[in-house]
């Protein structure tokens, strides 16, 4: 196929003249003659237009490349415009589709086909064509082509047009996507809109809508679904029943309904119970039909798993989970069962489990939990989080040296949260040290430590009780670490440098929380200078190009009335070229100094978001205006901490 580069200047000029002549005739409504000129241009200079438009059985279409001559495409587009003026929409569509065939990387064909589909009231096809054109030209800047701008504008106009109509008139996949965002209560309300809505939403075409059985807490006791209602909803979900079941914290749910839901959903993938019902639930243990269950969570903070025998009503569903061992990837629960402790624990063997989060905050068990037993039960674990589980034990220590390469070789996320004293956490420190040294720490990508005891500061030092292989200072590089998070644990600058230096050199570390020493507790007289000295010790971190998010906690910098930009923290943050998100949680009781500091930071940085996790601090209007002027989001909340953590591929 001839391209614009292959044609000589004389041919290019001739094609331009023919197009201008055709446009004049088109303006004069002499459509038949204008078509002749446009057709001549389309066939000019070696174009395969004739091969495309008329019957031919040769392989020229596969021999030559697609057309990139703008005159050829323009001529075809003008032919289509002319046919449209003559109300010959079928011929318009033919030319438009050939534009699309000959130049699939240009927006012209997509725009023309979409426009004709819209004229023919085929809104679903028009939307798909506009979207396909945007996806095919995603490497082009929107302002690089007027046609591309028209393509974006056409899709936006179509979306506005569709929004004004009954949503059930949208393309079927859009209807399903929209209504899948609703919980069961909201869906049942939608069924009462009219008979058409009820017939449409309960049809097999929209069965995915009913596969997410999300039971919210807003349901009143008088309107909660009965067993017959549940059977209907499960039938609307189609074969396999529900894929996700989520029972809210205040939703009363009885055993009979719970068993009905489970047994009617053999393709269940996600089971989430946010609060145990007053009637203690038990899980079926004699059936192995849930071979697709990937996620199980029971997050009632008053769980009695630590008091009730496993598999008993209200107890940890050991056998139920064991029966789903070949598919279960995510386990999240509150209160460790008694059977998990001791030298011969009863823990389900889950060979493909990827994430484990245990919250033991309300339990008072001080018996050590042997971490090695967990590694045997969950060998492919990638993310591990302990909350309130303060007594971890690394014994038997010798095993870590003998089988260290086999213990969680894929561990990427380690989170630990405890508020207990040194006397009860010494073994936990040793255990965490062991975990950070697995494979020299090279698999770890995210670490979070939320502890309040200053005695934790030696976690990165050596330990006489452990083999030298588990001295972080000598045997852990953590070169793939992407984030270190803590809003309470003040790590020494030496420990921080040990923890982060390899990841910074490798340009992997993107997120770091810096907790300033608790100078108030230690009764330091000059707190401002102490914070400045603490910050100065981090000279080696300045300007790290990989840092995108920083958190600063428990600091105190007094305001300089002469020059706010002399805040040491503002100058420190200004050194990071790619910093876009900042968390500020100072020791200030009033918002004036914090507002002045934040304004100074805004002047010196290119932030997009500032989190201030204290909604009681009154920030100045000047700060709010400065943030708005720079397009910076100011959020009086803590930054999100999603679980599981999204891992980079």
From TrEMBL:
Species assigned in the record? Claviceps purpurea (strain 20.1) (Ergot fungus)
> Which InterPro entries does the entry link to?
F-box-like_dom_sf, F-box_dom, LRR_dom_sf, TPR-like_helical_dom_sf
**Domain of life, per the record?**
Eukaryota
Pfam family of the protein (one): F-box-like
Name it.
Answer: F-box domain-containing protein
The family database entries (Gene3D superfamilies) matched by this protein are listed as: 1.20.1280.50, Ribonuclease Inhibitor, Tetratricopeptide repeat domain
Q: Which SUPFAM superfamilies match?
A: F-box domain, RNI-like, TPR-like
Q: Cross-referenced CDD domains, in alphabetical order? A: F-box_SF (cd09917)
The signal peptide, as residue positions, is none
């Amino acid at each position: 196929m001839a391209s614009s580069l292959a044609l000589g200047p004389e041919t290019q000029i001739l094609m331009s003249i023919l197009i201008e002549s055709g446009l004049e005739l088109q303006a004069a409504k002499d459509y038949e003659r204008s078509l002749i000129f446009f057709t001549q241009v389309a066939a000019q200079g070696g174009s395969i237009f004739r091969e495309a438009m008329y019957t031919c059985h040769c392989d020229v279409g596969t021999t030559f490349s697609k057309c990139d001559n703008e005159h050829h495409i323009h001529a075809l587009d003008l032919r289509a415009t002319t046919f449209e003026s003559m109300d010959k929409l079928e011929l318009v569509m033919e030319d438009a589709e050939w534009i699309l065939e000959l130049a699939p990387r240009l927006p012209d064909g997509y725009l023309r086909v979409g426009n004709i589909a819209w004229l023919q009231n085929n809104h679903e096809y028009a939307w798909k064509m506009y979207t396909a054109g945007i996806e095919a030209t995603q490497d082009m800047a929107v302002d690089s082509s007027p046609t591309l701008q028209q393509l974006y504008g056409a899709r936006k106009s179509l979306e506005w047009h569709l929004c004004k109509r009954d949503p059930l008139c949208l393309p079927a996949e859009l209807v399903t996507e929209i209504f899948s965002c609703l919980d069961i209560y909201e869906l049942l309300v939608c069924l009462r809109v009219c008979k058409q809505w009820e017939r449409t939403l309960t049809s097999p075409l929209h069965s995915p809508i009913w596969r997410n059985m999300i039971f919210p807490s807003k349901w009143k006791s008088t309107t909660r679904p009965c067993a017959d209602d549940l059977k209907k909803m499960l039938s609307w979900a189609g074969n396999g029943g529900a894929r996700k079941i989520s029972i809210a914290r205040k939703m009363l749910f009885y055993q009979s309904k719970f068993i009905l839901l489970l047994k009617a959903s053999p393709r269940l993938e996600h089971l989430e119970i946010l609060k145990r019902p007053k009637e203690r639930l038990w899980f079926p243990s004699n059936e192995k039909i849930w071979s697709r269950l990937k996620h199980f969570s029971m997050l009632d903070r008053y769980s009695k798993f630590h008091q009730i025998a496993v598999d008993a009503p209200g107890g940890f569903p050991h056998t139920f989970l064991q029966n789903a061992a070949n598919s279960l990837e995510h386990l999240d629960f509150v209160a460790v069962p008694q059977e998990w402790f001791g030298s011969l624990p009863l823990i389900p063997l889950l060979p493909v489990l990827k994430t484990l989060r245990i919250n033991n905050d309300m339990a008072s068990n001080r018996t050590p939990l042997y971490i090695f037993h967990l590694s045997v039960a969950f060998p492919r674990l990638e993310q591990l989080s302990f909350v309130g589980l303060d007594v971890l034990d690394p014994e038997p220590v010798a095993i870590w040296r003998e089988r260290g390469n086999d213990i969680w070789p894929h561990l990427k996320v380690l989170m630990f949260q405890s508020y207990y004293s040194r006397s009860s956490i010494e073994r936990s420190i040793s255990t965490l040290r062991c975990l950070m040294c697995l494979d020299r720490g090279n698999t770890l990508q995210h670490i979070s430590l939320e502890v309040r005891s200053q005695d934790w500061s030696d976690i990165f030092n050596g330990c006489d009780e452990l083999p030298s292989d588990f001295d972080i200072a000598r045997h852990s590089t953590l070169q793939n670490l992407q984030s270190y998070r803590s809003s309470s644990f003040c790590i020494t600058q030496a420990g921080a440098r040990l923890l982060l230096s390899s990841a910074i050199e490798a340009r992997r570390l993107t997120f770091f929380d810096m907790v300033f020493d608790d100078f108030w507790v230690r009764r330091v007289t000059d707190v401002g200078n102490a914070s400045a000295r603490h910050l100065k010790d981090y000279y080696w971190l300045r300007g790290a190009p990989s840092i995108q998010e920083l958190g600063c906690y428990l600091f105190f910098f007094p305001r300089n009335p002469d020059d706010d930009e002399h805040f040491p923290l503002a100058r420190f943050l200004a050194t990071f070229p790619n910093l876009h998100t900042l968390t500020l949680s100072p020791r200030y009781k009033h918002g004036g100094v914090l507002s002045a500091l934040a304004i100074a930071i805004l002047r010196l940085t290119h932030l997009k978001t500032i989190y201030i996790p204290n909604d009681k601090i009154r920030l100045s209007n000047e700060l709010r205006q400065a943030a708005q002027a720079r397009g910076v989001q100011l959020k009086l909340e803590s930054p999100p901490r999603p679980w599981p953590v999204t891992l980079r591929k």
